[in-house]
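hi! just following up on the protien thing from before. the input was this:
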Amino acid sequence: MTSSYPSLTRALAEALVDVLWFIDGSEDEQMDQDDAVKVMEGVAHVVGTLPSDQRQELIELVGEMAAAEGDPARREFLEEFPEGFGLIDEAS
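and the predicted 3d structure came back as:
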């Protein structure tokens, strides 16, 4: 079996975004909203504490994913991801 991802980092970034996209769009019947917020905040904490080179790498990967995304709603989610999850400062 051959991977369609150029790197482990890319595969993990795409998997992370897929999970967060699902959580972000989930309804109350699908997921407890308090739990959803906890997960989203937990991810924001982890990625927000990455060293700057790793944050930049993730920003670039998410940017590539956004550029290739055909779904406008998902593209918007990807474009807002770096700021929304603490990869960049709001003032930047």
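The chain has a mean pLDDT of 89.
Helices lie at 8-25, 33-48, 52-68, 72-84.
cheers
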